[in-house]
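## retry 2 of 3
previous attempt timed out at serialization; input unchanged, resubmitting
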Amino acid sequence: MKRNSAVVWMGLALAFLCGCERHSTKEVFYMVTTNAALPYWQTAAAGFNHAAAQYKVTSKVVGPDGYDAQAELAALQQAVAAKPAGILISVADAAVLQPGIDAAVQAGVPVITIDSDAASSHRLYFIGTNNLEAGRLSGKHVVDKLKNKGSIIVFTITGQPNTEDRLKGFRDALGNSQINIAEVIDIKGDARMAFDKAQELLGQTGPKKVDAFVCLDSASGKMVSDAIKRANATDRLLMAFDVNQDTLDGIKGGTIDATIAQKPYTMGYAGLKALDEVFHNPPAHMDKDFGADSFSPYPVFVDTGTSLVDKNNVDFYLASSAAGSK
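## retry succeeded, writing output
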């Protein structure tokens, strides 16, 4: 009788332990991206999905296949309606996305921003690049390469918090140099605009000649590189952003001088794990101002890091990209 009782208790204990596993596929985490078609966001999604597989939870990556803040807001609202365990989001336009983020948090859904922040929203915190420093790193390289003088064109996405910070950092780095930003061009998320404008400007000579092109977004570098190759204008400096395969190939081939590497895989990977921790250990008040709380369980900002990539270290990044795609 005692032996049978022991077996029963052991069975109950095992059942209790199995029923109290931390994770479940019923826990669904969303990543909302600004442009799902970009390789950059496919890399972030790979990190997000890898962490989900390790935790045995469900991950869903949503967002428009093109830069469209309103479409991203709609994707966010649909994710909130599904009552997920948590949401990661990159903010295309803070003015458009902030109300949706705040509504999600008020509904009890943890929200962490990645890549591009909405600092005034009720999101818990931000995981991503220090974009001011990334812009400064880009600017310092351009100043060195142009030897403190020249005329440059900057391609960016106006209104997106991360690119706005990069532009500010870039301007800071120019300092008292004699480098002039002739024009800042908003590509509005369409990299073909960068190609068309670069092609037009490459035909100019004399005082209007552009000495360098600087891209502060992920997609423009390849397009400007194509324009340079078509015009055989190898004397023009091209500074890109991110380490897409095309960008790395451009550095190897000599049409792109350098780029700034971010870590989107890390943003997605660390982001899911951070959301999981919040889901299993939620704060008493989700919409509290944790940034102003000296005893907050959350940081304000997790810097995932940046680095300069040029001909001196591009082979390392090419090898890393090849290994990551397997």
